[in-house]
TrEMBL record:
Membrane topology term: Multi-pass membrane protein
Keywords: Cell membrane, Membrane, Transmembrane, Transmembrane helix, Transport
Transmembrane segments: 6-24, 31-49, 61-81, 102-120, 149-166, 186-206, 238-259, 265-288, 300-322, 388-411, 423-447
Localization of this protein: Cell membrane
Superkingdom of this protein's organism: Bacteria
Name the UniProt record assigns to this protein: GntP family permease
Annotated InterPro entries: Glcn_transporter
Family, per entry: Belongs to the GntP permease family.
Length: 448
């Protein structure tokens, strides 16, 4: 550890602490608080102001370039499902099948299935409006804030687990390539570890974290347009179309080269932004019929969608800016150097490095990619199966989501929780996923 290293650690701590204080105590919008924290990190770490500004622009641009469009299109699709009562119809059908007691488990299973081919943000904007509608449709006396959270938190648990542990999500897939792991085995082991992890961190944990948390009005208010409720089949088609398109694109990679060349167009259509755009265009006639040409209907859809979009997208962009300044200042590299050469289990070491980078940068994908890159030699030297190393890194990449994680603000907005409530529910849930995931990886790796 050099004086420069200590200075960098102090800069990161002060910058993140300043962001938290400005947001919680100063009541500033997260967009402003996070930007102040980003520039503070750069200033204290010794980065030139010009380089800090470029890092802020790069981080915000990289996040908004993909996630911003996903959020906007997902909000549009969610608004259509809400205004047409398509989401309500799906919720009522699901409740008839599962009943009120089984609803949290149905929410978890749906999230795992839908989340398999989806990016976390895509699954979130598609699934939570439906789960929120299901919560609102619970019988009288069973639809309070606690009951609603006990439906929504399992969905988040399912989405988080498949995002971190199951290819073809970008983090696990890149770690598979970096460590030379077998893709099929990693997917199988990921599900084997992920399903019990999601159960513990979802329906079971929510019994303890949900009580006492108050919810603000939902992101998409239950406003109805004067149109007939679409059939369950039509609503389900609107929801599953982007899932099918994205899954079809992933299937191309599994085809023989001679066959895959004829389906190359699926790789383009399966991009989350394109898939959501196609789904939005198809959902209009499916959910509203001929009335899609009415300006009143179109105005209601995009007013409902875009009213909350600005604040969410700005907060996400500022979170990306803070992450990039931390990365540019060299904190990720420092944490990796500090973990090198310790006398500790390779799986625990990989998990710990991933945790440190996750806490510093706020990005699960950055934590996974960075950790996997520096663990290549350790995998070869220790003899640990690379598939288990991929999963240990993925579990650590979820540890304690906080204000420098763009997902923190996205989840906060969709749940309708305040800052304290988001920490109590979402941040604790992510931490439990990380810890339980590691324990199950270590247990399973000793058996198989």
């Amino acid at each position: 550890m050099t004086p420069a290293d200590y200075r960098l650690i102090a800069a990161a701590i002060v910058g993140i602490a300043l962001s938290i204080i400005l947001i919680i105590r100063g009541r500033l919008h997260p967009f402003v608080g996070l930007l102040c924290g980003a520039f503070t990190v750069g200033l204290l770490a010794g980065l030139p102001m010009e380089e800090t500004a470029k890092a802020v622009e790069k981080g915000a641009g990289a996040i908004l370039g993909g996630t911003g469009l996903v959020v906007a299109l997902g909000l549009g699709l969610g608004a259509m499902l809400q205004l047409s009562d398509g989401a309500g119809g799906l919720a009522r059908a699901a409740l008839r099948l599962s009943g009120a007691r089984g609803a949290p488990w149905a929410s978890l299973l749906t999230a795992i299935v839908i989340g398999l081919p989806l990016f976390f943000e895509t699954g979130l904007v598609l699934l939570l409006p439906i789960v929120a509608s299901a919560a609102a449709a619970l019988p009288a006396g069973q639809n309070g804030d606690t009951a609603k959270l006990r439906l929504m938190l399992p969905a988040l648990s399912g989405l988080s687990v498949v995002h971190a542990l199951v290819p073809p999500h970008p983090g696990p897939l890149l770690a598979v390539n970096a460590l030379g792991a077998n893709l099929g085995l990693t997917l199988l082991y990921g599900l084997m570890v992920g399903i019990p992890t999601a159960i513990i961190a979802g329906p079971l944990l929510a019994r303890f974290t949900a009580p006492g948390v108050k919810l603000s009005p939902p992101l998409l208010d239950p406003v109805r347009a004067d149109v007939p409720t679409p059939s369950v089949g039509r609503a389900l088609t609107a929801v599953l179309l982007p899932v099918v398109l994205i899954a079809a694109g992933q299937a191309v990679a599994l085809m023989p080269a001679s066959v895959a060349v004829h389906f190359a167009w699926l790789a383009w259509v399966s991009d989350p932004v394109v898939a959501l755009l196609v789904a939005t265009l198809v959902a209009l006639p499916l959910l509203f019929g001929r009335r899609i040409t009415e300006s009143r209907i179109q105005g209601a859809i995009w007013t409902e969608a875009m009213t909350p979009a600005g604040g969410i997208i700005l907060a996400i962009g500022a979170g990306g800016a803070l992450k990039q300044v931390l990365v540019t200042a060299g904190l990720s590299d420092l944490l990796v150097r500090l973990a090198d050469g310790g006398a500790i289990s390779p799986l625990v070491l990989a998990w710990g490095v991933s945790v440190c980078i996750r806490l510093a940068t706020g990005s699960a994908t950055v934590a996974t990619i960075t950790t996997a890159g520096v663990m290549q030699g350790l995998v070869a030297a220790s003899g640990v199966e690379p598939e288990w190393m991929v999963l240990a890194i993925g579990a650590g990449s979820l540890f304690f989501s906080h204000v420098n994680d763009p997902g923190f603000w996205l989840v906060k907005s969709y749940l309708g929780t305040d800052m304290a409530g988001t920490f109590k529910t979402w941040s604790i849930m992510e931490t439990v996923v990380a810890v339980v995931g590691l324990l199950l990886v270590m247990l399973a790796s000793s058996i198989f």
